[in-house]
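Need a sequence for this fold. Nothing fancy.
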């Protein structure tokens, strides 16, 4: 340890008036630190000591009373005094054996003067040393703080600050961010690390004079912790002050990093959002892609919108992990990935990295990998919906893919088919229905064709609407329809007769059949519950 000079009992013997002094007990504590000198000539000192004082006394208060003498020395020890200096001859002629035994047991130094000494001069001399020592500490601390503050202007990582405090104190520096591993400066082997980590954990419940720590707070929350570890020499007050100043510097540095990172994230969000809205030129986009390490001018792209759907009262997915999962899987399938996060939606811009243009197949493969991941399959996971926009062949048209991805998501939330993903190009009639719904009363339109069937089912629970859907999906095959509905043919014939009565005998003729099929899709689109409602019903 690059130790600041600390006055010890042993150092006192080098001072004036201690030339003839003798240590008669407690030699094991001769390296105790002396912070002040106190003259005691009373019998009650419990409120007079703060610890590490060197006691000067003639013993007048306890002369001829061995029991009181022992009691006084016991109080000195309990109050962590540095040692006791006794003047023999005036009031005391000797130190009782009981006192010497107690001092030896507790390594409490007892020093005797054989002749009368001037306590005032001793006090002034030692106090001047202590005061000069304190002044030197303050000066060195100020120099350290100024140097550290200057370095903060150019320091790039907090590791540089850890190296700086190590250079100043020459003790082991340990740093730990919340939920991360311990870092050691200098590096030590794993066995030593485990041993010291065990000691660090123990110091939280039991004080240690070789370990000190300082929490690092950001925004009122403990963000990290800084430790110093001295194997042989106890940690001094100066070390603690250096530790505190350094923890403050690290907090400032981390806060600056977070601010820069957040500012960069906001700027990136605004730029990507502008790209999604079609605000950037082709040259600006290529420049941005080049800055992000994309050398070739990519053309093929598509936008995906991922929406999280919490299950009942379960918490939402770990969004950070979800973004990492998507990025990793899509990159493995040949895409460069950019994303914009907003509320419970993450919008991904996928740029094709490969010469093969089977984008759709690769996206399907990636989504299936995501579906099969343990993270998505776990019971506590919230559900996700993925809506893919139209495939575009110029990065300047990303906004077109984005708009169609939003349309896909809107339609997807209206569909009874709750599969995890849909592509805009596969929606066909649903896209037409979505557009028509903006200008036409589709409910009234579908009622013209389906209302008699719906009313019959409501009145008699006849399952005619279900039968009609299956019959049309099976292209009028009675055998396939009965198998699909798990009913006997006679029941199917009965239901088909009812449908003819309600819809007309010509309901399977081409034009009317197409119209009815379309209206069945309209009915599903209008009657499908919202995502939240469907989720609560599960």
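Here you go.
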């Amino acid at each position: 340890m690059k130790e600041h000079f600390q006055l010890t009992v042993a150092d006192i013997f080098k001072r004036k008036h201690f030339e003839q002094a003798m240590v008669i007990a407690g030699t094991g504590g001769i390296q105790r630190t002396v912070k002040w000198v106190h003259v005691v000539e009373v019998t009650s000192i419990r409120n007079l000591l703060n610890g590490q004082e060197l006691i000067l006394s003639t013993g007048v208060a306890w002369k001829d009373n061995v029991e009181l003498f022992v009691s006084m020395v016991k109080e000195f020890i309990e109050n962590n005094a540095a040692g006791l200096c006794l003047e023999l001859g005036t009031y005391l002629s000797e130190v009782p054996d009981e006192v010497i035994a107690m001092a030896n047991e507790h390594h409490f130094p007892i020093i005797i003067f054989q002749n009368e000494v001037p306590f005032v001069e001793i006090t002034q001399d030692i106090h001047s040393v202590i005061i000069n020592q304190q002044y030197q500490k303050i000066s060195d601390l100020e120099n350290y703080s100024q140097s550290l503050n200057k370095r903060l202007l150019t320091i790039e990582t907090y590791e540089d600050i850890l190296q700086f405090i190590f250079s100043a104190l020459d003790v082991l520096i340990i740093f730990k961010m919340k939920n991360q591993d311990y870092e050691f400066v200098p590096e030590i082997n794993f066995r030593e690390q485990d041993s010291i980590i065990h000691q660090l954990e123990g110091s939280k419940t039991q004080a240690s004079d070789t370990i000190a720590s300082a929490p690092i707070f950001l925004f009122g929350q403990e963000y990290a912790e800084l430790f110093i570890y001295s194997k042989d020499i106890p940690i001094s007050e100066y070390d603690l002050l250096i530790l505190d100043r350094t923890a403050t510097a690290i907090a400032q540095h981390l806060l600056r990093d977070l601010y820069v990172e957040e500012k960069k994230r906001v700027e990136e969000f605004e730029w990507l959002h502008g790209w999604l809205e079609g605000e950037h030129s082709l040259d600006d986009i290529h420049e941005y892609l080049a800055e992000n390490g994309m050398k070739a001018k990519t053309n093929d792209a598509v936008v995906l919108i991922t929406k999280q759907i919490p299950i009942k009262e379960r918490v939402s997915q770990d969004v950070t992990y979800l973004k990492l999962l998507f990025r990793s899987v899509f990159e493995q399938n040949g895409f460069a990935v950019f994303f914009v996060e907003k509320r419970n939606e993450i919008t991904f811009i996928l740029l094709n990295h490969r010469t093969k243009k089977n984008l759709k197949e690769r996206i399907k493969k990636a989504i299936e990998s995501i579906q099969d991941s343990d993270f998505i399959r776990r019971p506590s996971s919230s559900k996700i919906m993925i809506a893919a926009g139209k495939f575009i062949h110029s990065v300047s048209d990303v906004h077109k893919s984005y708009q169609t991805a939003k349309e896909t998501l809107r339609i997807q939330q209206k569909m009874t088919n709750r599969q995890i993903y849909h592509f805009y190009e596969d929606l066909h009639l649903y896209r037409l229905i979505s557009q028509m719904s903006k200008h036409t009363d589709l409910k009234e339109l579908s009622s013209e064709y389906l209302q008699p069937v719906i009313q019959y089912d409501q009145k008699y629970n006849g399952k005619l609407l279900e039968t009609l859907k299956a019959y049309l999906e099976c292209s009028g095959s009675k055998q396939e329809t009965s198998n699909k509905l798990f009913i006997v043919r006679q029941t199917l014939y009965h239901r088909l007769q009812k449908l003819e009565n309600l819809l007309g005998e010509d309901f399977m003729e081409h034009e009317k059949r197409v119209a009815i099929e379309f209206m069945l899709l309209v009915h599903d689109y209008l009657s499908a519950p919202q995502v939240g409602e469907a989720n609560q019903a599960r």
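For context: Residues 313-317, 531-538 have pLDDT under 50 and may be disordered.
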